[in-house]
Amino acid sequence: MFNCIREECGVFGIYSNTPTTVANSVFYGLYALQHRGQESCGIVVNDRGVFSYHKGLGLVNEVFDAESLGKLPQGKIALGHVRYSTTGNITASNTQPIVVRHIKGPMAIAHNGNLINALTLRREYELKGAIFHSTSDTEVISYAITEARLETGSIEKALEKAMGKIRGAYSLVIMSAKKLIAARDPDGFRPLCIGTLPDGGYVVASESCALDSIGADYLRDVKPGEIVVINENGLNSIETNCRKKGTMCVFEYVYFARPDSVINGASVHGARLRAGEFLAKEHPVDADIVIGVPDSGLDAALGFAHASGIPYGVGFIKNRYVGRTFIQPAQGMREDSVKIKLNVIKKVVEGKRVVLVDDSIVRGTTSGRIVALIRNAGAKEVHMRISSPPFISPCYFGTDIDSKDKLIACKMTVPEIAKHIGADTLGYLSAENVVRIAEEADTGFCSGCFTGKYPIEVPDEMPKDKFEQKLIE
Amino acid sequence: MFNCIREECGVFGIYSNTPTTVANSVFYGLYALQHRGQESCGIVVNDRGVFSYHKGLGLVNEVFDAESLGKLPQGKIALGHVRYSTTGNITASNTQPIVVRHIKGPMAIAHNGNLINALTLRREYELKGAIFHSTSDTEVISYAITEARLETGSIEKALEKAMGKIRGAYSLVIMSAKKLIAARDPDGFRPLCIGTLPDGGYVVASESCALDSIGADYLRDVKPGEIVVINENGLNSIETNCRKKGTMCVFEYVYFARPDSVINGASVHGARLRAGEFLAKEHPVDADIVIGVPDSGLDAALGFAHASGIPYGVGFIKNRYVGRTFIQPAQGMREDSVKIKLNVIKKVVEGKRVVLVDDSIVRGTTSGRIVALIRNAGAKEVHMRISSPPFISPCYFGTDIDSKDKLIACKMTVPEIAKHIGADTLGYLSAENVVRIAEEADTGFCSGCFTGKYPIEVPDEMPKDKFEQKLIE
Amino acid sequence: MFNCIREECGVFGIYSNTPTTVANSVFYGLYALQHRGQESCGIVVNDRGVFSYHKGLGLVNEVFDAESLGKLPQGKIALGHVRYSTTGNITASNTQPIVVRHIKGPMAIAHNGNLINALTLRREYELKGAIFHSTSDTEVISYAITEARLETGSIEKALEKAMGKIRGAYSLVIMSAKKLIAARDPDGFRPLCIGTLPDGGYVVASESCALDSIGADYLRDVKPGEIVVINENGLNSIETNCRKKGTMCVFEYVYFARPDSVINGASVHGARLRAGEFLAKEHPVDADIVIGVPDSGLDAALGFAHASGIPYGVGFIKNRYVGRTFIQPAQGMREDSVKIKLNVIKKVVEGKRVVLVDDSIVRGTTSGRIVALIRNAGAKEVHMRISSPPFISPCYFGTDIDSKDKLIACKMTVPEIAKHIGADTLGYLSAENVVRIAEEADTGFCSGCFTGKYPIEVPDEMPKDKFEQKLIE
Amino acid sequence: MFNCIREECGVFGIYSNTPTTVANSVFYGLYALQHRGQESCGIVVNDRGVFSYHKGLGLVNEVFDAESLGKLPQGKIALGHVRYSTTGNITASNTQPIVVRHIKGPMAIAHNGNLINALTLRREYELKGAIFHSTSDTEVISYAITEARLETGSIEKALEKAMGKIRGAYSLVIMSAKKLIAARDPDGFRPLCIGTLPDGGYVVASESCALDSIGADYLRDVKPGEIVVINENGLNSIETNCRKKGTMCVFEYVYFARPDSVINGASVHGARLRAGEFLAKEHPVDADIVIGVPDSGLDAALGFAHASGIPYGVGFIKNRYVGRTFIQPAQGMREDSVKIKLNVIKKVVEGKRVVLVDDSIVRGTTSGRIVALIRNAGAKEVHMRISSPPFISPCYFGTDIDSKDKLIACKMTVPEIAKHIGADTLGYLSAENVVRIAEEADTGFCSGCFTGKYPIEVPDEMPKDKFEQKLIE
Hints:
4 copies of one chain form a homotetramer.
Chain A: E1 9-20, H1 22-32, E2 40-47, E3 50-57, H2 60-63, H3 66-71, E4 75-83, E5 98-102, E6 105-115, H4 118-126, H5 137-149, H6 155-162, E7 168-175, E8 180-184, E9 193-196, E10 202-205, H7 208-213, E11 217-221, E12 227-231, E13 234-238, E14 247-249, H8 251-256, E15 262-263, E16 266-267, H9 268-282, E17 289-292, H10 298-308, E18 316-318, H11 337-341, E19 342-344, H12 346-349, E20 353-358, H13 365-376, E21 381-386, H14 414-421, E22 425-428, H15 431-434, E23 444-446, H16 448-451, H17 467-472
Parallel strand pairs in A: 14-23, 17-20, 20-21, 21-22
Antiparallel strand pairs in A: 1-4, 1-10, 2-3, 2-4, 5-6, 6-7, 7-8, 8-12, 9-10, 9-11, 12-13, 15-16, 18-19
């Protein structure tokens, strides 16, 4: 709720064996993926080759209502996207899915991730006369596929070839006139899974919780480097780009994904419980009660309680009705936005030694306010425990973990941070253990934001935060 | 979330010693009281005797934004209301606070509760030439005060007299040109508390969580029958109608109120933990895990776990982005609205004997779906525990606990209900214990909906559900 | 378009012999009456005694769309209103029709006009315990009818009695459970006419253009003082309050009414042509072309041209897309709002001696700008002719012709005004002739705003402009 | 108002010598050009090379308000567009201006007209890997410029080269990082003119009325084939593509343009007066009054009256408040949409022999209704006169004059049409005279829709009406 770290996208695609209200299914799927992006969303429906779409700025149930969903035709194939970032311009040009036409007809693309050679490729295409309508990577991917399509016999072959050119993190869902295609980068940074529909059709989604929401059964995850092609012949796979075990973003387990999702075979909720258990062992403390910061700290708090034997309690109530656009409190009143969203149950913490569990600390401001709330409610001691290691390095693979000067752990030691946020003690999960929280997952992990070591080399063209800027000026 | 039982209102009033953006404070207060009514809301500001208001259908942050709040003037006194019920007509005439003018100038009233002699009084006033603009009790209360005002020297004296005439449940906040007045019916059915502001001013609110949200300090509850008058002379009390200990609605503790509120000195969260503890003793079961139905069953589940020694687990994830106006799933898909709002964490319940705790069962439909979700996720056994007794009788005092033919417990025995919802066993908290969950509260309790015995006699004019009808036809 | 003088209301009622979509008919009727009030509007439908309504701030086609009209039920009787004035508070409490319930059931009232003893009556009712929800006269009328209803056998009898109590200008349409009632004050200040429907039903409307819009046939005007009762027995008339010939507002003919309306048997367009003809005779001038200020000056310009023999020309183009909420031009640009709305056809006026005809001058600012536009386009001379006399006195009978300090003719002589607005000559229609422009009309005229002599005595309680103020403070 | 023939676009560009609120100026300019396109609109502002835009479906004052205008930055250059046609899909992808980035940075284009080789060029670019986001010609123009830009030293040189490739009707306004560029196709089908700003800057607009609205002075029209480049060095012209006198669309004078505009030196109002005069000579009739159909028939009616000596009258009142999205009358009522928008002034036509002047007849339905209105109001005879020749051939140059099966004149003789619409006589302006109505204009004329003879050859790829279809299927 208060975290500054944001996932950049969620994707969803459906292939139904019979024409139906596929837009509604995408709507429910996006709804379940809303936590992956709250700034804009869109749905494209393919009705026998004719693509219709509706996109907009806002939450899924702000952009879509019965009227706008009703205007989208029935069809067999559809695509959806939720997105976090906007460019700052008052334009909607970066909303996804992007819908284009090339030599072979219409194509729609929804993308979760971030390319690390987007600028180079963009320049290359511009030199050939290409025109860009947005600043997003996804248009670069479109050109790479289109370019390859001129020399190959199918869109999946074109994508196979294009994947040799684009580098970075990408979980893609693509729709052509007759096919739904899903693909994941060879490193498998971002999740993408497949489900089956009762009618024999298929769904692909960033997380399994989206399958659950429409009653689809989880089939498997898309493999790193795999291209999955779904059409009237069913599901087929191209594995020529599958050459690695994969290095999944470990912060998906810590924070981004929904606890009820299963990613690469590992339960997200289970991983968070385990993070709490590790934390209890790494940073034990003598205390009366363990409470979590809602919502993302609750699971780890429960794990901490189990492993430590200290009772688990409910310390905070979150206002369920908090909207995104919150009116700022007037000056001179004692209100503050944390207090409006979160209230302490005084009876639970009064006179107690409290272990307070959260998933991460970014700048420290919010953590400081939360510690203060607990203290003002009468806690004797506050011991902060964080279920991931300190952020020390930016992420180049699809999240907004940012340049070093905005990360408190780049500027202070752990004791300094503890003092800064007003905690009696502070303990972070170690980098060794964070990659062990989802051990049953069939993948390696990227923990570059905690270690500065990335699975693939990051080129100089990636001056974190400056990407949009460069394109605009 | 899925419960059909709804509180009908929340009220909030503020008296600041200096003119300021009181509308903003009311906004935050209503925001914290949103759970008490989601259908409409309104704010009235008193700027040196001139009343300005904005009301509308929808949630607080739908009806109000920076622009509409900004148009309300600064002032020293303001009033707000959140409301549940609408009449079915496409009119906004029943939104509150109501703002009227009578012989002594402007008056605004916000009301939580329900009169049991409203029809009789309405008829009496109509015979004298009265005109009504709405079908709400609140307009009847306005006339009773106005009538008394003609014969008394102040609005508080008029209210004191009117309280001899109106009967039933009412927690009122009233604003005149120079005063803020709060009052509670002599039985104290609905909560109402007082807080102090840093500048020496006062706030009154249905629940203490609203005081917390604006940084006000809890002072005390308004007593049953008390009239509290706040003006430039500070706070004064009229206790001539205080003749009973009070019979607070016990379902406020079980379900309506926010867990972080303290009512009559008793923590709502604490009462719910205790309900779970009683329940564990009344209906013990051999099981592997205790899970609660979000959000209202979570506290009792934790209490059950503590008392039983069975581990507490998180079994469900609720979609945080569920709006009120949800688009119904299309026919022929396997989606259903419970599944879209609530997902099971399979890993937690798979192969387990599960104790499932919820606050109440109304018709049984939702409970049946939730039990099915748990079973489909692989639970071996499901033992349903309800932290309140079966509903067997309607409520006439401000909630929509309804006529008998809609309550499952009026039509089935407990074992029949268990079978109906698909649970292996089912246990309800006893009527003896439900009134013990908040024992530190300085009040008696109304548990009429569980027993059919009401603290005051309900007249024949109360043909539950037919009130609106009568007025319209 | 640029005039500051505004009519305050338009009313419309329908009685269909069979239940149908009466709301749609009212919608079209109000649409045709939109020029009489653009601030708010509303429609009430009577479906077998159940009243449903929708009201709002804005134009008819802003407040109503297919959805909101569709939500109103079918019925036999319905009422509508368009209104100009709002109080300045951000409230919608003064929108009409007002819908209330009294001892005999529901009643809705739509009112065009202004009472001159409203404050006195209001006080009288307040002393009996009355409550007011708005500051409008219409609520006072409701009380007068309700009071009389307690002592009479029908709503029309009650209205007949109430008309002895209320004084001023009122054209009323009233709906009870089974009747549609229309009435006009004994002086007949404001228009009100009756039409017949193909199915034998009836319509009443402020102007005949509203009958035309729904295909109703004009029957006759309601007489000054008459009460018309329409129910299943057809149309019946009560004429006990008919004691005068009537003194219709002459400015209805000059400006307020639509040119295609026929009022009291006289064509509005015809009256304006004749005003132009009189003007040509009173203030002849040697010139090359006659042009009118759109839209209200066009008819009089044509009349002037006919009578003078000077050719008629089209000198201005009005932007058809001007909305009500116009964005003000930024400072430093040469745009001004008159220029954006109105453009001169240079070719028509260049090098010419121009007679420019408009209906009235209020403050002189707009007239000055329009004269400047003509001069800048190259006119050699500009001779302004006004088709009504100078405003020298306020109107108390339902328009906003205002207190003397805002009327230029109260502060300057005609030559001074000519100089002020930049015209070579200026001529107003005389007060003698203005009451002769609609001579075929079966009524006398009120020209109080031009003469200061009113048909009925205006009491001291009428401190023009201060009415709202008094109520609020 | 009732005509089915629609112009497809209006364009506006501004170059201010100092950074200012250029978006506001474009807003007023588009406002004056609203009659050229009511379906969508957009504004792009260039703030030192950074392009920001806002576009949307609807009228200028629906899409833009103070808030959305305020979000656009100040700048020196800006571009705007109003558009008529949409594709039928619920997408906004065809709104203009289009804003893209190519190798040399950002470029925005606003286009009025229609290419006749768009499909061929589109195919050519697709074969090189091009991606299209819309189905509009404008994207093809973007590619042609971008392609040429790779081989030329400036955007104006690129445009000069691209004009050798694109064929058809185009009035373009283009914005690059530092320049505002205007261009017209070598045949000069659509208008485009230049104005000067007080600060020495420039404006370009489809019609001179847009210059007037912001206080700019008309400088001259852009020549057929000319490229006008405006930057910090002032205005420069490239005339290498100027090789013809030009063949301006004559229907701009008859109907499309605003009467207050001057195009190619000829007043539109003057041309319409003259059309009426020619008509009076070609088709004289003995009658009592001449009336025009609002708004487009009024000028020609006045010309007819002058030339014939028959008095000019105002026969219709148009409802000023008609919105675009009008609610259809319910079945069974006598309302019809023409009656709601237009009402006859009975007094003017009753018992008269009426000459009724309109600009054109498309299908004949509306004309039939209007003749019926006049007859029902009591006219003795109705003589219809049309100020342009019969439509017998489609337009390929930027209007929606359509395939032959929708044009009544392709299926009936003039006497048959007269009978069909219920007129006593019917006379059209001759094809010989229609090109003489604006004789002072410094251009030839295209009257292909009246003659079937086009200034340039139309290729087979132009299966009128099928363009969108082809792209989508």
